[in-house]
Design a protein that fits this description.
six-stranded mixed sheet, about 375 residues, Cytidine Deaminase, domain 2, single chain
Length: about 375
Amino acid sequence: MYLRYGMNPHQAAKATVTTGGAPVTVRNGEPSFINLLDALSGWQLVSAASVLAAGPVAASFKHVSPAGVATAGDLDATARESWRLSGAIGSLTSAYVRARDADPKSSFGDMVAVSAPVDAELADLLSRVVADGIVAPGFEPGTMQLLARKKRGTFLVLEADRSYRPPEWERRDVFGLILEQQRDLAPLTADLLTASSGEALTPDAVADGLLGLATLRYTQSNSVALVKAGMVLGIGAGQQNRVDCVKLAAAKAATWWLRRHPRIRSLPQVPEADMTPRQLAEFSRLFPAAEPALNDSERSSWITQLDNVTLVSDGFLPFRDNIDHASRIGVGTVVEPGGSGRSSEVEDACAEYGIALVRTGLRLFHH
């Protein structure tokens, strides 16, 4: 398969199809090395998660980790306003809007992955947002023509083969060594999500926990996901310590929630919510009667109203500070492998905050 270039434009690259055929077919555009990495991880994520959710799932991928993942569901007023949508919205479009709305700043120029064939409604939305490409298991009549016109004809369109089955062992060549390992096929099932302490999980918390586990299986480790109502609101990925993962995911979830504050919703729309001093000065010049910020007390008061969030971690939580930070963003359930030398302190912290703790015994590192 021809590739435009490797990790960087000065690197040549190619993709070689192994036994069993290719998992994706290029329908439009020319992929880069990173495009394929994002597309292949994104497709595996949404196809697996859609089985768990028994419905459409979408992911917004950037730099080999998802910026957002979501099942189909209702769109609130903020999402509808942000993406200029009205009336009845189809399930596949709602899944992608919910995924992209989690972290629209990171989703700028994303690789889109959806678990069902692209329909006219989703194709129309994609024609209006900044994205680099899409991977999907099919395309309804007329959608290819619309997508192929995007980005002056360079928009990448990949069709995934639902029937493709990868080899049991995966391999990579690194600095002269060929590393091989069994593919991660450990099943993700509801019986993993039995509370070790605290109240039993609700069906919604179980569904969110499974979505979080599926997400982290294809997210660069260390990683933590915050999930609510079938939406991964915040992902902390690729950090060298667990608490920074939690803090990063919490900051993203807080931004998502703050965008729903009545005062923020009433502001004129600007490209970025977090403005530099220069942007702030420009905002003030254009909208002298608008106040673009909440004070600390107002922010804290609003954030405390976020609840029923499930925190999922790909590795064990080593210290209770992870729980302290999680408690500030409405986390009611924590899902982690367990096994830390300080697991008792983590359990005690969950008990203090009334958080249900699940220990799956399953680590999901991904590199």
